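Pipeline run #58 for the internal structure catalog. This entry was flagged by the ingest filter as a single-chain record with no existing model, so it goes straight to prediction. Upstream metadata was stripped on purpose; only the residue string is passed forward. Reviewer on rotation: M.T. Logging verbosity set to normal.
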Amino acid sequence: MASAEHAVPAPPGVDRGAVWRHVSLQNAPLILSLLILLGTTGLYIVFFNSNTGGLPGSFELTSLANTTLPLIFAALGQTVVVLTRGIDLSVGGMMDLSNSLAAAEMHATLGSELLWSAIIIAIGAAGGLLNGLLVVYARLQPILVTIATLSIFQGLAIAVLPQPGGAIPSAYTSVLTNPNQPTSLAYVAFVMLAWVAFRRSSFGIATFAVGNDQDAARARGIAVDRTKVLVYTLSGMLAAIAGLFLAASATAGDATTGDVYILQSIAAVVLGGISFAGGRGSGVGAVAGAFTLTLLVNVLFFAGINPLYQQFYQGLFLITAIVLGAGIARLGRVGRIGR
């Protein structure tokens, strides 16, 4: 134990307790999202043990990671848009188009896999760019624009793959979503590191600044319009990547499987504590929200909930999380006023 003479004294006038409270309130939504994930994980372990008499192992962890990866990328795309006070409802359509193209066109050669991965990601970027241009320069509401492009992407997906089918090369599946080992957790780690890099980059700083106060950001010399266009472009790219992971996980394509991720990506953002008022939130929270949603399905299954009522309980869970988040945000505002 360090002696008193070696303790570093607090700078004069600095109340460490006040600083800690300030930091805690600032990060309260993220802390809440992590606590919800921890609680959901605990429930999953309890119900799993009561049904099987054991604890989740490598197979369950692998399944969890592989199932969650498409939602993680979709939620991150949704996050960057929400940070600028927008919304992207086209993520599901882009995932439809992405996984349909992969299943229909990708062949079991390295050249084909790399080429079509690049083409699909480029198509995602182009779709996101279209959203951004319409929102920024045509001055249209994001919800209207992305509903329209959602329909366009869904139509293109059906044209590419009218019936579920096609095939994803087994080597490609093993690289993205290895069914035998939880190697896909490496992608989760990469995503977290990429978020840290994004948050510290000029693009990330501009994204948060635009979401906090667009006029103030413009006054500081930030290219507001360009930032918004790039944000939607990034969202389209991430949705396309999500579609590739979805195709790899399913080992085949379906022009409708991405549709469910529209609401799920928004739900992950909500559970992740990202503010729809813009400028506040973390990609780490979105990742936590994505894992929470996947675990919740498992919890309901092992709890013996009738599948017909699972959506009811999922909705109830989300409402509870929203109320908790709103209460914490209100507490934070009161704390700031009190100071």
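catalog note: The mean pLDDT is 88.
catalog note: The chain has one domain: 57-304.
status: ready for reviewer M.T.
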